[in-house]
Amino acid sequence: MAINTEKNSYTLFFAIGMVIVVGSLLAFVASGLKPNIKENERLEKQQNILYAMGVDENGDDPGSVNFISTDKVAAEFKTYITKQLIIQGDNVTEDDQAYLIDLKKEEALAKDESYERRLPLFVGEKDGKTFYIVPMRGKGLWDAIWGYVSVDEEMVVQGAFFDHKGETPGLGSNIKERFFMDDFKGENLFNGTSFVGIDVAKGNADPLNKDKSDNQVDAIAGATITGNGVTAMIKKDLRMYLPYFNSLKN
């Protein structure tokens, strides 16, 4: 019996069949690639954490952003990151998987007042100096932004790394460019004894960023909302670590 391919029912069932077949193939491929995707995410987090404390392959090029290569990053991470901590209220524990904590999930869970949010913190040693690398996550113009800021015991910034999901190319996306990230080095998160964070300031009177006591870095032209997002992210997330840093002084 011949199939009438001109009937609407044939077209409908053919389309449904193709959706099922293609969907099944995509699900199979995604399932097979999942371990590789997870591994790449793990290595990328290690690269970002190391970059924030100045372990990179930038060389002498002032405009480059070059991470430790993926074939070396796991070994370098073990070399430079001496402790991974999880701060949960008054409890501080070591956990070598702390860098895998999902900040987005933790922030969502913390909406329940009974949940004590887990805060990962990474302690690094380089050239006889101790670095404390804080992960953070916020909101840009279009979507999520995130990053890592390394500080010393006095919460003076030693390095930074920022990234984004969908900021405008050539504008907000420039938060991941070296000229912007390098401006944070040496900035103090305090004004006297008060925590104030760092403002990404439009019209900053210090465009060369020589004044490290003004709690400001120069904004990116045309990216005011993204810059405000970075400002809010730094203040919101670094503030949560104040009790820990205060304990280091006792």
Short recap of the structure:
A hairpin with a 2-residue loop joins strand 1 (81-88) and strand 2 (91-94). Helix 1 packs across helix 2.
Provide a descriptive summary of the structure in words.
Strand 4 (129-139) and strand 5 (144-151) form a beta hairpin. The protein has helices at residues 8-52, 73-80, 103-109, 178-181, 224-239, 242-248; strands at 81-88, 91-94, 119-126, 129-139, 144-151, 157-164, 190-191, 194-195, 199-201, 216-218. 35% of the residues lie in helices and 23% in strands.
Which sequence of SSEs, written as H and E, runs from N to C?
Answer: HHEEHEEEEHEEEEHH
Lateral arrangement of strands in the main beta sheet: 2-1-3-4-5-6
**How many H/I helices?**
6
Rg measurement, Å? 23 Å
Helix content range of the residues, please?
A: 25-40%
Overall mean pLDDT stands at 90
Keywords:
single chain, 250 residues, alpha+beta, 10 strands
Give me the secondary-structure topology:
Elements: H1 8-52, H2 73-80, E1 81-88, E2 91-94, H3 103-109, E3 119-126, E4 129-139, E5 144-151, E6 157-164, H4 178-181, E7 190-191, E8 194-195, E9 199-201, E10 216-218, H5 224-239, H6 242-248
Parallel strand pairs: 9-10
Antiparallel strand pairs: 1-2, 1-3, 3-4, 4-5, 5-6, 7-8
